[in-house]
Amino acid sequence: MGTRYANVAKELTEAIATGRYPVGSLLPNELELAERFSVSRSTIRAAMRELQTSGLVSRKKSAGTKVEASSPPHGGSGFVQALGSIEAVQQFGRETVRDIQDVADEVADDELAVRLGCRAGRRWLRISSVRLIPGDETKLPICWTDIYIDAAFASDVRARMKDHAGIFSTLVEQISGRQITEIRQDICASGVPGRIASAMRAETGSYALEIRRQYYQSPSSLVEVSLSVHPADRYRYSIRLTRQGACQPK
Fold first, then answer.
1. Exposed, middle or buried, 43 (CB in 10 Å: 0-12/13-18/19+)?
2. Angle, CA of 35, 39 and 42, to the nearest 5°
3. How many angstroms separate the CA atoms of 46 and 1, rounded?
4. d(Cα 44, Cα 4) in Å, to the nearest integer?
5. What structural domains does the chain harbor?
6. Do residues 25 and 66 make contact, with C-beta atoms less than 8 angstroms apart?
7. How many CB atoms are closer than 10 A to CB 248?
8. pLDDT tens for residues 38-79?
């Protein structure tokens, strides 16, 4: 769905920018758009989420999707990611292209153990890659990601990774037969490390956002950790907060 989703979002963004759907107007409903683009309604909903996150539209139940701006208020640069569920994290893997740079077996020393949030001496399979926007791999990479997968899954992951387009946690689910039930995420400011600067086409030490995600199959079963570095000018993380128990407008 990732490529179809991106194409729909791009075409609707262009239609809004050229005035086909002027500010204040309503977009066609999901069913009409699905028929027009020959895609599923879930693909349309994914495209709508991107437009909403970028500030182009607003959505209200029973009121439709309203055009709020002809161009993204933040200038439209970089990659915007809105995450609110495990499924949204998995969708990110389908919406971007992975270019694997290195694969190796590693044993966590004291420093790496702190970064991963595990015990020292634990064995992992590390997969390092860059993420690119699909359809335009000439653009700057979105991020560098080091994926650490529990050594118990290493041989199966190695055998199947080249044919797996999604994020690796879904492959771990397939191999183990158990779902990821929780992702714990930490975000901090950092600099672009020298070891990845060339691949990221960024200056060493330039501003970046570092995200650690720990993937659990149960509260005590950590099966994967991802460490991602996003240069500051290429990525914006978006999250929507609502007040619990607040009355919804009628």
1. buried
2. 110
3. 9
4. 9
5. 2-67 (1.10.10.10), 79-238 (3.40.1410.10)
6. yes
7. 7
8. 999 988 988 888 888 777 888 887 778 998 887 765 444 455
